[in-house]
Specification:
Blueprint (H helix, E strand, L loop, with lengths): L12 H27 L5 H33 L7 H27 L4 H23 L7 H61 L9 H17 L2
């Protein structure tokens, strides 16, 4: 939304438009006057032809000069080959938002263990945002044909998408390992330690082992199996 703080057009454009409109109005008014003078026979046909031809040639040069001035104004107001910084930052915001939410979607897909066909939707968003980001940041000139530029940008976008995919995948798996370890520590505290501590205190107070279908050996085996499963993914 930062684009709203910048002008989409140069402040000099209205003055140039006014100059253009005045030039067109003067040409039309003068040409109409010549027609009326010709009708009232104040001008001969030859005089009318000469004056009109001169008027049209002068008007063309004037309008050409005004349009050239407008081109210079637009060029001065442009940013990295785009019409304005207003337009550039607006598109940059859209591309950034698409890239962010595509990466977030991809991370969620990988975390849920979704198949690649579900991840492909998020990856497509990364590909599209990568294409337009490269186009927006680096395509400022046209030294080669448009097809070569588009092809090169598309290849770069594919490489960018592949890099982002494996980067997100790596950090997602890394986060999963950390979460599993934290979850294991929480289970040690709330389940394994609590159960063994209860059995030890019971035996200390009563003087005999706590009678249950699950023995201390079973509790230790459950802990070992859980620990083995957590460490196998590291």
């Amino acid at each position: 939304m930062f684009h709203v703080f910048f002008n989409s057009k140069s402040p000099k454009v209205p003055a140039n438009n006014k100059k253009y409109n005045e030039a067109i109005a003067y040409r039309n008014t003068t040409q109409q006057k010549y027609l009326e003078d010709l009708k009232s026979k104040k001008l001969s046909v030859d005089e009318y032809y000469t004056l009109t031809k001169t008027l049209i040639n002068t008007s063309k040069k004037q309008i050409k000069s005004i349009n050239k001035e407008l081109g210079e104004i637009n060029k001065e107001h442009s940013f990295r080959g785009r019409n304005s910084f207003h337009f550039w930052i607006f598109v940059f915001g859209l591309v950034t938002a698409l890239f962010f939410f595509s990466c977030k979607s991809l991370k969620d897909d990988i975390s849920r263990g979704s198949t690649f066909k579900f991840q492909l939707v998020s990856l497509s968003g990364i590909l599209v945002s990568g294409f337009w980001a490269i186009h927006l940041l680096f395509l400022t000139q046209k030294d080669f044909s448009q097809n070569k530029y588009l092809g090169l940008i598309f290849v770069c976008a594919i490489l960018f998408s592949a890099f982002t995919y494996f980067l997100v995948k790596y950090y997602t798996y890394k986060d999963q390992i950390i979460y599993k370890q934290l979850s294991f520590i929480e289970r040690i505290k709330k389940i394994y330690f609590a159960e063994l501590a209860f059995r030890a205190r019971y035996a200390e107070r009563v003087g005999e082992a706590y009678k249950s279908e699950k023995t201390v050996r079973d509790c230790i085996d459950e802990f070992q199996d859980d620990l083995k499963q957590v460490t196998s993914n590291i």
